[in-house]
Design a protein that fits this description.
Shape: globular
Order of helices and strands: HEHEEHEHHHHHHHEHHEEEEH
Distance between the termini: 31 Å
Number of strands: 9
CATH topology of the largest domain: Alkaline Phosphatase, subunit A
Structural class: alpha/beta
CATH superfamily of the largest domain: Alkaline Phosphatase, subunit A
CATH class of the largest domain: Alpha Beta
Strand order of the largest sheet: 4-5-1-6-7-2-8
CATH architecture of the largest domain: 3-Layer(aba) Sandwich
Strand content: 5-15%
Largest sheet: 7 strands, mixed
Helix content: 25-40%
Length: 417
Amino acid sequence: MKMDRRSFLKGIGGVLALPMLESLAVAGQSSPTRFLVVGNPLGMHPEHFFPTEFGKQFAMPETLRSLEWLRDRMTILSHTDHGMVSGHGREISFLNGILPQNSQAYPEKNISIDQLIARRSGSSVRFPSIHAALERGIRMSWNSNGVELKPYTDPQKLFDKLFLNLSAAERKTRRELIERNGSILDAVGDQLSSLKRNGSATDRVRLDQYETSVRELEGSFADRRNWIDKDKPTYDISEHFADYEVTVENRYNAIFDMIGYAFQTDLTRVATVAFPNELSYTDVDGVTRGYHACTHNGKKAEVIAELVAIESFQIAQLSRCLQKLDAIQEPNSDGSMLDHTVVLFGSGMGYGGTHSNRNLPILVAGGGFKHKGHVDTRGSNGQNMPLCNLYVTLQQRFGIEKDSFNTSTGAFDLRHG
């Protein structure tokens, strides 16, 4: 094609970010590697998260059943932790291995692994990292100054941040376009049609997928004009949805979908999604109690069942997101977007029922790694592996050639290629 990516984006006036396409790609340019972290502050019920067998031939535990389709491309790590005394307040160390008050003893202070990677790739994208949740409180991401990076908790504002960063004059123009056409996509229909006509067969498929995804997201908002006009400190989430019941599932669907679009359009390469401890899950089948309350279950079967339902829901949300990433073929690559996305799920607490900070529930997927199934990471001395050993491996996957990260004692063997 005669039009490069920058010219096309300028031509449509910044209304939408464009997915990465073969026709607009730089010759020989490889697909970028991305990093997605999904976490919670209360750990996972161990008997339902960890398989009973090690290696690749394991029975999928109840909590992870929605990831059965991904079993050959994921690694579950048993017996990792940060070597801390158990108790609330330590879970904030999930992505860095240390507590803020101890940060001066480490070269990188208490920067979290997502921010270390974002610092590496941030100059290549519009947003070095994106953080989302439905409530604040998990305290998962930290910069090198020890400042917590708070997540977007309003899907509307996250959408505006990612896709409609407009000046006052631009907002007026876009409002007129949307009111006249009824859709952002309709407002740029001629340009997208031209791009599809002149693009490769693969590009046409990717653009069709992209248009479908954006239209689905448009359909989940009650008033498309809100995309431009609504920007208030308080905003009722129910106004965002037209045809869907306002549930924790639908709201997280919107969050995960927008993260996927941000990866697809290369707006960012690092994202975190959190499931906070006081979030209500009572619209999930079988759940009548609060999340935190379910962790203090007294080993009562009926309460444990509700906890497992909540944790299974979290994994199912992750699975849905990863299936969408896996359906997107990368330009100039034999793999999918998931093959180029390192996915980390876990928590800084092992199990909320005992406030244990040992044996953290950790899962890694995608990223082009040679995955191992279920791994017992304990050393020959029977000691748990520092979780920061995994983070050494992850930072190296992103080209950060360092052999240590905070409390690490080495690197976890998880080769890629």
